[in-house]
UniProtKB/TrEMBL annotation:
Coiled coil: none annotated. The keyword Transmembrane helix applies. It is found in: Cell membrane. PROSITE patterns: PTS_EIIA_TYPE_1, PTS_EIIA_TYPE_1_HIS, PTS_EIIB_TYPE_1, PTS_EIIC_TYPE_1. This is PTS system sucrose-specific IIC component. The active site is at 27 (phosphocysteine intermediate). GO terms for cellular component: plasma membrane. It is a multi-pass membrane protein. Residues 521-625 form the PTS EIIA type-1 domain. The keyword Transport applies. The chain crosses the membrane at residues 127-152, 164-185, 192-211, 226-246, 258-283, 303-328, 340-360, 372-393, 400-421, 441-462. It comes from Priestia aryabhattai. Keywords: Cell membrane, Kinase, Membrane, Phosphotransferase system, Sugar transport, Transferase, Transmembrane, Transmembrane helix, Transport.
Length: 650
């Protein structure tokens, strides 16, 4: 009997035998088991099994065994599971029962580990964020059409010649804005677990196609005619959410043979009637009061309201909570033709641009910090603020606060002007200028300049940390790159010949570097597999960080093992719980045993698909054969480009 067979046998016994296993699988580092009854698991015995590094009780029960070992143990686990299943047992259960119970258990664990608020934010983002490119493109086209129309009205352009172009541009623009509820219905159905086509139909119902003034549909609460689009996207979200529950309920009872006929008919009729007679009037009331409340606040609050909103938005972006505002922006555009919130909130980006400029001036001797600023500042000016947030101002602390104040100053200026709105949602900064409604872009620019100035002055006077002024005194959170003429430090791992210098390891992705402790997975964050760091990738290609060879590629291609020429072994695990994707979204570009150089492409990713379907895209980079006493210390955190070196020291 092999040692792996013995390990598998002991694990199965401690897991409660074959009758307690609904299904199992394995990834690069762990055996994942879905038990029927968690109470039958003897966790203490599992931890005593030789070769077990640790356990995690999550969506599945995970037994940490490590790269290489887990594949062999999993193979033997299947054998002993079959042997145990064939043995006489007093507790019989069909495979269907086991699978169903396992799925229920997994569902319960998901409920326990995911808060409703986080799930809500994720769903809102998944519904609306894919539509933002269409909003930006259509909004810019609408802006061009408005300029032409105004020129025709002023007599600067000939109406007979140019009116047809205005009409054509408006047709293109209306493709998204006129039928937005249908797109939202489709995306919401995907997120809520309903049929996408039915979600689109529910969205289309709110357009009241076919209703005329002669034959209106009356609002049962006010006895006034319903108007097309009443309730907007808020009503569509509510209706599609109800649709998802009804579909799932109906499929419990309707036979498969007639499901395709009966289920959509009943679902559409029921939810359609609810939408017309209850949801549209109710959502319309919510929408009108919400937007009326925002208008009232900005009208009455003016400078003060603008300042508060400008100060508060940057922390919302940092926490990812800004996504909840997307439906509000869209509804304001639907009802008023523009969102007056977005230009005010955009001032937070102006504040951090001003703060970054102050850092550049005061900390110009800090060459590494200036290098980061040079890379992140242009996209920050254009309205993409994350590189500045995570790479510059947030790690330094005080500049983040002064940047928020600068955003408040810009917001106060926009609030003072009043009625400065955007006809579409998109990036802030200079990129928002073409989307400003009614030709008020000059007022928006004044607000931007005020935000730049406020962020610069507050940071220059009060927000410069002493440790950031010169290169040598940086703390570990400030990016640091030593001159190439210096001797590269090396880390020698005690008892081995493993060395790695600052030039021998480069960042394998564009993305945000973070400590291993921040990984949302207990196996990696507790360093069961070894020390290292993590990166949240922003590009689609994983390249080799080292010169060496490929030693293992997991069958689902979500994890890859490398070894340097000196023998240091590295595990790169793309995302968390990505084994469940079964290889979808990953294309392997190398083979086992292949020699590689720094920068050799290893994996091609469908990043959007992985983001949508995996628990997280945060990617741990683990040094698996370094001694336990070895500690990886990050020299850099924040956003960095692929190929950056001097990421860490041992």
């Amino acid at each position: 009997m092999s040692k792996h067979h013995q390990t598998a046998k002991e694990l199965l016994q401690a897991l409660g035998g074959s009758s307690n296993i609904a299904n199992y699988t394995h990834c690069m580092t762990r055996l994942r088991v879905t038990p029927v009854n968690h109470n039958r698991i003897d966790e203490a015995s599992i931890k005593q099994v030789k070769g077990v590094v640790g356990v995690v009780d999550d969506d599945t029960y995970q037994i940490i065994l490590g790269p290489g070992v887990v594949t062999k143990v999993a193979e033997q686990f299947g054998i002993v599971l079959q042997e145990d299943s064939a043995a006489p047992s007093q507790e019989e259960a069909s495979p269907e029962d086991l699978t169903s119970k396992g799925a229920d258990m997994k569902s319960e664990l998901k409920k326990k580990n995911n808060t409703p608020f986080k799930n809500f934010l994720r769903k809102v983002g998944s519904i609306f964020i894919p539509l933002i490119p269409a909003f930006v493109g259509a909004g810019l086209i609408a802006g061009i059409a408005s300029i032409l129309a105004n020129s025709i009205t002023a007599g600067d352009l000939d109406k007979d010649t140019w009116q047809q172009y205005v009409t054509i541009l408006n047709v293109i623009k209306n493709a998204i804005f006129s039928y937005l509820v249908i797109y939202v219905g489709i995306n919401a159905a995907k997120e809520f677990g309903a049929t996408s086509a039915l979600g689109g139909v529910i969205g289309g119902i709110t357009l009241l196609t076919g209703v005329t003034e002669e034959f209106p549909i009356m609002n049962i609460f006010t006895d006034q005619p319903l108007t097309a689009g009443q309730g907007g996207v808020i009503g569509v979200l509510i209706a599609v959410w109800l649709l998802s529950f009804l579909e799932k309920f109906l499929r419990r009872f309707i036979p498969d043979a007639i499901d395709i006929i009966v289920t959509p008919t009943i679902a559409l009729l029921t939810v359609g009637l609810l939408t017309i007679f209850f949801i549209m009037p109710f959502a319309g009331l919510i929408s009108s009061n919400l937007i009326g409340g925002i208008d009232w606040t900005l009208e009455r609050g003016g400078i003060f309201a603008g300042f508060v909103l400008g100060v508060a938005f940057l922390p919302l972006v940092m926490l990812g909570l800004h996504q909840v505002l997307i439906p509000i922006h869209i509804e304001m555009i639907n009802t008023a033709g523009m969102t007056i919130l977005l230009p005010i909130l955009a001032m937070s980006g102006a504040g951090q641009v001003g703060a970054t400029l102050a850092l550049w001036v005061r900390c110009r001797k800090n060459k590494s910090l200036v290098t980061i600023i040079k890379g992140a500042l242009p996209v920050g000016i254009l309205g993409i603020g994350e590189p500045l947030i995570y790479g510059v101002i947030l790690p330094l602390g005080r500049p983040f606060i002064t940047a928020c104040i600068g955003g408040g100053i810009g917001g106060a200026v926009i609030g003072m002007f009043g009625n400065v709105g955007s006809i579409a949602i998109g990036p802030s900064g200079l990129a928002l200028i073409p989307l400003i409604a009614h030709g008020l872009w000059l007022k928006y620019i004044v607000g931007l300049l005020a935000g730049y100035a406020g962020g610069f002055i507050c940071t220059y006077l009060f927000g410069i940390p002493k440790e950031a002024i010169t290169e040598g005194s940086n703390n570990k959170e400030v990016p640091e790159t030593k001159a190439k003429t210096e001797v590269a430090p090396t880390a020698e791992i005690e008892g081995t010949n493993y060395t790695i210098s600052e030039s021998a390891f480069i960042l394998p992705f564009d993305g945000y570097v973070m400590p291993l402790e921040d990984v949302p997975d207990a196996v990696f964050s507790s360093k069961m597999m070894g020390d290292g760091f993590a990166i949240e990738p922003t590009n689609n290609t994983l390249v080799s960080p080292i010169n060496g060879e490929v030693v293992s590629i997991f069958p689902t291609k979500h994890a890859i093992g490398l070894k340097t020429d000196e023998g240091l072994e590295i595990l790169i695990h793309v995302g968390i719980e990505t084994v469940a994707l079964k290889g979808q979204g990953f294309t392997c570009l190398v083979e086992d045993g292949q020699k590689i150089k720094q920068g050799t492409p290893l994996l091609k990713l469908e990043l959007d698909y992985i983001k949508e379907n995996a628990k997280s895209i945060i990617t741990p980079v683990i040094f698996t054969n370094s001694p336990k006493e070895t500690k990886v210390e990050l020299n850099k955190t924040g956003y960095f480009n692929q190929g950056t070196n001097n990421i860490f020291t041992f």
